[in-house]
Amino acid sequence: GLFVTDYFTRTPRKLSPFRSFASIELFHFHIPEDTVIAVWNLITFKEQGGTFGDQCPDRSITVYFRSGAPSVINPLHTHFPRDTAVPGSFALTLTWTLPNRTTGVFNVTSPLPGDWFLAAHLPKDEGKISVKGLYEECQYLFQPQLIVQRLVNIAVLYPGHVTEQSMAPHNRSCLYKVFVPSYTSRVLVEVLRCRGAEGCPLWLRVRAKAPPLHNSTTLDCREHTPCQLAQDLPFWQHWYYVLVEKHPGVPGTVSFQVTVQLTDCSRPSLARPPFLPSSASMNMPHSFGSAGGLALGDSPPPTSPNDTKHPVPIPVTLHAGERCWPVRPTLRNELDTFSVHFYIFFGPNVSVPPDRPAVFVINLLPVLDSGGVLNLELRLNVSSLCGENVTVFGCLNHGVPLTSGDNTSVTCETESLAGFLLSVNATASLSRLRIPYPQTGSWYLSLRSLCATEHGFEPCTNVTAEVYLRAYLSPCINDCGIYGQCKLLRTNNYLYAACECKAGWNGWGCTDNAEAFSYGFQLLSTLLLCLSNVMFVPPVAIAVRSHYLLEAAVYIFTMFFSTFYHACDQPGIVVFCIMEYDVLQFCDFLGSLMSVWVTVIAMARLQPIVKQASVLYLLGAMLLSMALQMDRHGLWNLLGPSLFALGIMAVAWTARTIRRRHCYPPTWKRWAFYLCPGALIAAAAVLLYAFVETEENYFYIHSIWHLLIAGSVGFLLPPRAKPSRRLGPLPRRKGCGYQLCVNEQEELGLVDPAVASINSICTS
């Protein structure tokens, strides 16, 4: 055949350590139909400071693959919530082959067409809290690329028609495909009039949705006469691929005929006619996922191929050879993103008669609905059982309805289908099922009532069970509970939801309490973080006593907002917020930086040098507010103002030292008992904040940070300025033709005005 190669790539993204599904990087691809091979080229490289990260440690990268919906992963081996079905996926771990780059290749032969999702993450780290910009962080970037090779012009088989084929010696196989419309109960593929050098040296393989593989349903035509391969309960509205493969080493040409018969659900003993005016029988999809179409009469009314019909009850075959039962559609009501309710006509109470099942269809839209959670709830009305030991079984299957034909062993699986089983009875009248990230398309729920006897389950007589049925789509499981937050995430144009847990809780729905914080621990951490701010009371008292009223006001502001910010920032249930979280965080950060600023400016003692030193306080407040609005967690938001204030203090102290020709501050006691201890305490606080703090020790390390910072302020704040006893030069002021000689000490309010004398009144 003729092959066409397509190439797809995605932008590199930075990977994060795994904490929850919200921390993974998700990539969305689309594989076209008739693809025979898909090759993913997985490129990973390190970066540090804008260059190659040769010095970065090697960290393993795990990549997950799944068709139809994102992978439901559990690398931490946590517990899933009750009644949760976990769909499978394939995982691959990449190892480093070069110091700063590695490449992995993942091949999929005959992949399923449609949406494919890749999820990648780094291993879980120790949760260190690092200051942004303190050092160049190692970044691990991941870029997947997809190369697909697909066949074009694959021969299409029409039901009831015979296709002649001759396989030349250099050819090994022939590939065909046939479209299976809705309400088809059986697909029968047959090889006729096979002639070769050694009888019929052919293999017959059949597979749904994609070309067959070595492990697909296979039949050896040498050993079976006639060469017929049947598929019961095929997937509706999908292509089935037929591969006729020649045995290796067979010489000469092999000729044969291939035909396909599709059995109509409403007429199990009859095949579909070769030509019907219905679009479904023309091997072309016209309403994917809908329950439309007619199969009750001998022949449907003529319609055009492009007609779209509304869902109507249609008979289906639940098991090969059984009767057909109607499929009841559901009404889709979209409330919000991933918030969809499926209502049943004349529901939600459903009657399940004893002689036939009740079948319902739930249609999930492609791409739009695969990022949420499909929820199903069955509640049995016990009063409707009339005292009988009745059990209602439900089978939820994707693509085709299914119920068990064996009354002794109830199951929802066959050789080619796997479904989910639910059951309710008088003892357990409630059953739930949750499917995270469900595959899109049509989901069929088949309800069947059976009575329990000594010999197993048997059909009931004259008992119609009543069941309350609820089906809906939600973003997360139980909205992640009280210890989690349901986040709506986006990758390119694809939306999905995931839980982000807190307070030590883990799991897909934040229900795993193996590492959860107890209530006492949460209360203790909250009290430590809040009450440690009381350490600012001594600096406030020292500032008021020394007449540093502006500094005292800033310390009170910091103490107040730091207390209530940490009361609102707690991950558990011990939370108290007096304002919006963002307002409290901004005020806490601003108060902390302003405390450093005003303390250092006060230590500089600029009042005798700069008369309007309050300008620096106002300037600092405005600049800090601007910096926090730009980047609240940046390193230079803390270092920039601090270094600038320290520079002002150094200039002021140097000027005093040069003018007085003596070191400033002049006394060794000030250095030994105040400045050095205060500087050491502040340095210890900064080291703890920058290098020791992690998520596990945050509550007590950060509390120690509060204590040390407040304690250092008490040491570093300068004492009250003493009045000078020496009368300095008197400045002269001119007024009304006189030169007034004014005493400077009287102007400063440092001496009694009655004692001070006017030295001279000079006439102009």
UniProtKB/TrEMBL annotation:
Stretches that traverse the bilayer: 516-536, 548-567, 573-597, 609-628, 634-655, 671-692, 698-717
Pfam family for this entry, one: DUF3522
One GO term describing the cellular component: plasma membrane
Source organism superkingdom: Eukaryota
Topology versus the membrane: Multi-pass membrane protein
Subcellular location(s) per record: Cell membrane
Location of the EGF-like domain: 499-510
UniProt keyword list: Cell membrane, Membrane, Transmembrane, Transmembrane helix
Keyword Ribonucleoprotein assigned: no
Signal peptide: none
InterPro entries from the UniProt entry: EGF, NGX6/PGAP6/MYMK
PANTHER family given in the database record: FIVE-SPAN TRANSMEMBRANE PROTEIN M83, TRANSMEMBRANE PROTEIN 8B
Family statement drawn from the similarity comment of this UniProt entry: Belongs to the TMEM8 family.
Protein name stated in the entry: TMM8B protein
Species: Chloropsis cyanopogon
